[in-house]
Structures are given as C-alpha cells and as structure tokens.
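so my prof wants the structure for this chain in the tokens format not the other one, which i didnt know existed until like an hour ago. anyway here's the sequence
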Amino acid sequence: MANRLTQIATRTGDDGTTGLGDGTRVPKDHLRVHAMGDVDELNSHLGVLLAEPLPSDVRALLQSVQHELFNLGGELSIPGYTLLGDEALAALDAALAQHNATLPRLAEFILPAGTRAAALAHVARAVARRAERAVVQLGAAEPVRPAPRQYLNRLSDLLFVLARVLNRARLDGLGGDDVYWRSPRLASEAPPAT
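here's what i got, hopefully its the right format
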C-alpha cells in the first residue's frame, strides 16, 4: 500500500486530478473516485450515527463496519488489490440474521423515520445503496472484485434492520415501532373490516 498521509494540503489536485493508492492519477470525476467518495460518505454517516445513544452490541457492530468500509475504500483506491476479506461479508450475514430474528415480520412498507438514531440508520442505508450503484457502475467499466458490491448490498440490508431495531431500543425515550407508510390507494383497496 502507498505511504500514509504526511501532508493534507498537497495542491496536487488543483488540476482536477487525484492520486489513487497505486500512484496513478485520474480525473476527480472518474468512476473509481465516485465509488470511493460514496463509501467515504457512508462511513461518515455511520460516524454521525455512532454519536447517538445506541445499544452496545449495535455500537460495536457499527464500529467494526467502519473499519471494513475503510478496507473497502482502500481496495477501491488500488486497482487489482484485495483488502476486504470474506470474513467481513460473513460477519454482516451473521449480524443480519441475529438482529432480524428479534423483529416482527413486516406487513407494510415503512418510512425512513422514527427515532433520530433510526432515521440516521436509514440515511446511511440510502447512501450504502448509492455506493453500491457506484461500485456496479465501476465494475461495468473495469475489473472490480464482487466482494465490495456484495458487502455494500448486505450492509444496506443490515442498516434497514438496524433502523427497526433502533426504533424499538427507546434509548432516547422515543420510538417503539416502525413508522408505517399510509397509502391512500392501498387503503381504498383494502377489504372492509368485518
């Protein structure tokens, strides 16, 4: 891997290019840079979520995810390099199964709302989906391992589940359930109550 940062303001990007981890320079609007930026934004949103009151197991999970996202970003920054291990995806699958098992089945669509922590998890979920799309777009243009795409896909699912968990955690004195979407069309099509 390239040298660690010793200086932040290098002025080397003033020409509209940026350096990848292997030393090559690409335009700042390159597909790889978009994907790296979306992963960085996702990690930043998780940092904001971690500033909220959270159950200790959720906090530990999200802190681990932040490290894996840094690995994922590093892998994207060095074409052909592998940093994100198979165990990272397995950990997401295990966490998804564990947390999903504690929740009631969904019968309706829910809104990205509820407690502040749940709403922040939904924002992170939406950014994870955008990051996934950016990695898919990059993969259509040049070789990218499946692991980064798979990790972001599973992570967005996990963040949806964690938002539901956080709505029930009541750590801020609020919440208790999901916020359900009320569709006028679906309500008019519902069978009459007997």
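also thought this was worth mentioning. The radius of gyration is 19 Å.
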